[in-house]
Every structure is written in C-alpha cells, then in structure tokens.
Amino acid sequence: MFATPKNHQGVPVGRELPVLQGCIEALEQGHECLSSLTDDQYLWSAPPHVTSTIGEHFRHLLDLFYAVYNAYHLHGQSQNAPEMIDYDYRRRGHSVETSRQRGLSEIEHLIHWLESVSQKQLKATVKLSTEVSLTHKQSQQMQSTLERELTFVALHANHHFAMAKVTISLLDIKVNDEFGLAPATLSYMRGQ
Questions:
Q1: Span 17-31, pLDDT tens digits
Q2: Could you tell me which of 41, 134, 139, 189 has the fewest CB atoms within 10 Å of its CB?
Q3: Long-range contacts formed by 160-164: CB under 8 A, 24+ apart
C-alpha cells in the first residue's frame, strides 16, 4: 500500500508535520463519529434544516480529500508533486453515501496515506481546478501547494462535520463536543 516512513521512535513522519497531523485529527474525529452511529442513522437527514444525509456529508468531504489523494497517487507519488487536483469531481450516488462501513474504510485509507507524506511532498507546488461561478459553468485553474490544499480539505471537513452534528443531535446521539469545531474555535475555547 504505502511505505510509511517512521521517526526513531516509530511514529509515522506524517504525524509529526502540523498540517498532516491536523488532517489526521479531523479524519479521526470523523471515524469516531461514524463508529458511534448505526447504519440506519448514517442514512438519516433532518429536513427542512439539513436535507443531506450524514452519509452524503461524509461522501462530500471524502471527495475533497480524494481529489487531492488521486492527483498525488495517480501521478505525483513518483514526481514529488501531484498532477491537477480536480475539486469538481464528485461521487454523487456512490456507495460511500449509503455504507457507513465504506466511509470508515475510506477514512482509514486516507489516514494511512497522510502518514506517508513527506515534508518535501507537502511543500510541492500543485495545480488545481475548481468551478467558481454560481450562474454558469466556469472553472478556474490555479497554483497552490499540497500543504495548502490539505489544510483546505481538513477545514472543509470540519464544516460538514458541523452540519452532520446538527442531524446527529436531532437523533439524540451524543458525539464528542469538539466534533465539527474549527481549530481556531477550539484554541479560543481553550483560552477562556
């Protein structure tokens, strides 16, 4: 699968790099949440407030992680820099929307991948493409770094965790109080 380099204490190097650690922490929160739900709860939505199911929120946030992963894995792994990250790719209707186990498995796969990413790969320049207009199809291509794009997808995951948490709360299920909160919010709360 992935060669996971480790430090002298046996810790995967990806867990030592702040951006990767943040991504891993976010994905671990998602894993913990999904582990606390049943398969039926994973399929629940709370209209009119939240029209997407918990599974659909997880599919979307996993799509963004996989946009970065696919660009890296399909090309950049050998070149140290991913090819084009396509944020417009969506797996709507994919089994991850309806299979909680598939969601858990994809999270575990992504964590394992993140543990194998090096500092050099993290700093690599990447190209990305994303739609930018609400009124017509208009995609824009731009440059970034793998580090910046992984930061984006982790923060975006928090946003979808917060929306899923609304649905989960209506099911009367208790999840981690920090689930769905942004890093800056948690820092603020620790300082109070």
A1: 999 999 999 999 999
A2: 134
A3: 160/57, 160/58, 160/60, 160/61, 161/26, 161/29, 161/30, 161/33, 161/57, 161/61, 163/50, 163/52, 163/57, 164/33, 164/54, 164/57, 164/58
